[in-house]
Structures are given as structure tokens and as C-alpha cells.
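URGENT: need a sanity check before tomorrow's submission.

F., can you look over the tRNA-uridine aminocarboxypropyltransferase record below? I want to be sure the sequence and structure line up before it goes out.
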Amino acid sequence: MSRIQCQRCLRPQTHCLCPLIPSLDSRTRVLLLQHPSEVNHALNTARLAALGLTNAELIVGEVFEDLPALLNQPGYRARLLFPGEDAQPMQACAATDEPLLLVVPDGTWRKARKMLHLNPLLAALPRVTLAEGGVSRYRLRKAPGPGALSTVEAIVQALETLEAPTSFAPLLKPFEALIEGQIAAMGEEVYQRNHSEK
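C-alpha cells as predicted:
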């Protein structure tokens, strides 16, 4: 017997996050390109980000046929949030008048790289990166390296850099509730044994 699911946040109705999801406006337009394997992930943070931002869009796929139209948004400069040798720091984009269309691939690093490989137009976009040293609140899995953030955390950091002094911290409320719920479901003892810092 399956549990009734909230059609908006895709969580079980008993753990619906909608009351915690804000409705934040941003000058920056956020385009989230989500790998299909992430859709049913328990911690679908890209969906939380898209629901919490009025100027955001979430598209699921591996190959994006309508990418030219998605990237050609009048009044916006498209930038890919992804590391690379020629990536500019996010702060460099904050100083300009023209707002960004921030393109954010959502998936494991391997799957995100595959999405770039399958979509040459995406791979060709100028890249931007976040400041180093970001610490993830994602306490349920070990980060692959320092500064590895969940999708929603990366978006919050990017927007707070681009649109300072505006705070986008309310986007993290449903994310934190989700993590607290997962910890509660596994029990404190299991969490301490498997996830707490040694």
C-alpha cells in the first residue's frame, strides 16, 4: 500500500513540506536541469529550490531539445553553475547590470558531466563557480570534497552573492526539515553510528 503523496512537493502527505516552502522573488532567473534519476530521490533539493523561487524553472531530462529557446531569455546573460578551468567566480557577475540566467545541472557529478556532454550548447556556456569553503548542512551523506553543496544550498549561496544583501536563507527551511525528518526516521542511535563526525 503506497502512501498518499503531496502533488506539489512530492513528499508523503504526512510529511508535506509545502508550509515551509517560501515564495521568493529574485532578479536572477534560475534554470534547473535535473537528471531523471534525481526526481524520486528522497532529498530532491532542486525541486525545493524551484518551488521556493518565483523566477525559477525545473526541467527534467538528459538531452534538452529546446535548450536554445531556454537559454535565449531576453534581458538575461546565461551562465552555467559548474566548475571548470575557465570558470569565473560568482562575485565577478554580481557587479554587472544585466541579470543572469543561472543554469544549474542537478545530479551526481558524473551525471551532471554526462548532461554537459550530451548537450554541447550547455557545455559551451560561460561557467561560474561559488566561493570556496562552503559548508553543507546535508548531514546525511559525506560530501565528495570540501565545498560540495546540495543543489538548493548552491543556489542560495549563488543568489546571496549575486543579489546581496538580500537573504535567500528561507529556501533552506524545507531542506533542513527534510534532513531532520530523515534523521528522526532512522533514529538517533543509527544516525550517530553512521553519520555523525567521528
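My own read: Residues 23-132+145-168 form a domain with the Alpha/beta knot fold (CATH 3.40.1280). The two ends are 38 Å apart (CA to CA). If you see anything odd, call me.
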